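Justification of resources, computational component.

The compute hours requested in this renewal are based largely on the per-chain cost of generating structure records like the one below. Each record pairs the submitted sequence with a full structure-token output. That output is archived, and it is also reused by downstream analysis tasks.
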Amino acid sequence: MKTFFLFCGALIMGAFPSYASAQPQAQLMFGAFYSNGQNESVSTTNSEIIGFPVGLSYQDNRWSASVFTSYLRTYRYDQVKLNKPVSGIGDTFLSLGYDLMQAPWVTLSLNHKLPTGSVDDGTSTGKSDTGVQLDYFSSLNDTQSIFSSLSYKVTGKVDGVDMKDPIFASVGLSQSISDSTYIGASLGYNQSIYKSVSDTTGVTVFSGVQVDKRRQLFFSGSYDSSKNYQFGINFSLQLLQ
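The structure output for this chain reads:
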């Protein structure tokens, strides 16, 4: 779901430093984001969303798992709910991953969406989705890393709506600028789950700041070919030391 892209990115980027650790890692994350433009939770190209996501991730050697959801306040500028805000819990996303390789890392994940959002409020399609994802991460040197992702999703089809099973692909670079701060950017291609909504190509920029051994801030923003723009801030807390 496109409105959660920034938070997913924070879960992934925030995990990069933990790849070097052999100890189990548990991470609690919460934050806020703003999105304006195309929204894939409903078939509309004109919406405004304020979201407050929360998630939990865990990694132990080659295995990783995560769960997250979000509270959403959505404004749909269409003929059905013109300028009328609706609020509620969005869908819940589950992921289970396994590292096929380490250093460099190749991770195969199974992702599943639980339709905990409201169809009437426009925060869910009301159907479950299941997908597979392949992620790659490698350090080029002491300060630079590259990463990429490729995913395919089987979408739960809504009666009377022309939908499809989309793919997503991205590639990016991160750069450490100090012992506690990194920046980066990625280019992504995202197919819409709706045949009536355009597929998009977009750019995301991000920065992470290690506040201390347990806490990290993550900032990100994106813009795509549908003129959708998003930005967000997330805070993560390591639960295991």
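The longest helix spans residues 5-15. The helical segments are 5-15.
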